[in-house]
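ligand=zinc ion
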Amino acid sequence: MIRKNRSMMRRATPSPMVIMAGGALFMALVALVFWPRNTRPKALQGSLNLQRASVAAPSQPVHAPSQAQEPAAAEPVSANGLKTFQTKINGPLSRSFQRGGLERKQATFLSALAARLLIWRLDLRRELRRGDKIELLYRPVDSQSMFEIIAMRYTSTKHNRSYAFYRYQEPGRRFAAYYDAEGREIEQKLRNSPLREYEQVTSILKMRPKHKGVDFKAPVGTKLYLPFRARVLRTTWNFRYNGNCLEVVPLHKPNARIMFLHLQKLSSKVKAGRVLPAGTILGYVGNTGRSTAPHLHYQIMTRRGKVIDPFRFHETYMRTLPEGQLASFQQHRRQLDLQFPNR
Ligand SMILES: [Zn+2]
């Protein structure tokens, strides 16, 4: 579990000598604590840069040493495992992250993760303003995305408010998800979703205008369901790009075409010409064709090829944590709030 930072109570402004001594001590302790735990050289490099960046932040030397002195915990979300980062928006997100002290590659990865969350609250092309503030708690992970955001706060000058995002693992669910301070899930949900379980929506239409579908990150083998009663039009064409795939026409909207790409395999029921009931298992999520990580590419178009947003085609809803989970979520959230660079 997360430990509360007791040192936050010491709020008096320290003298420059104390800051320097504290900074040096912090670097040494943090290096001791983190060095052996970082097995991947790239993550290590990133963490060192970040520590340098956070030492420069005025609030850090005051509370960081006690953070480093705490024993290493096995629990992944611990005060020890979390890194803090903050920056002001000054141009595109990734450049703002570099200006905040991150090396280019790390800035690219971390800002992309931040964008996946922000996109649900802000129009990233029109609503970010110079001087907006972004604060992150995150940790390196051994996966392609390099990092995992544990909590994030974005202060928008345009909307004169801040948006908060907290990663929380609800007991009994396969994947953690991100919630706002009230326990509402950040991502919108599709009714009749092609996937009942997935980790995250990693691309929606307004994020990448040239990309025609929505990407759901999910492990290879995750079951794919037919969202609506539909006729199968074709299966696995252009394998090099699409991998194992299929296209269907939903019978309630015969002008629409629905495509599912990069599947591991199709179920044997899926044959061109067949009409299948909603809920039929069509196959399994994979990483075939031009795909760099296991995910479902879900694309809806008109017969003439105009892209339709699945979040408009489907009914959608917002998910809130069940009553019984709220107290535990709020405790988790408060502990994360204590670790932000600016409290
Ligand atoms: Zn895609």
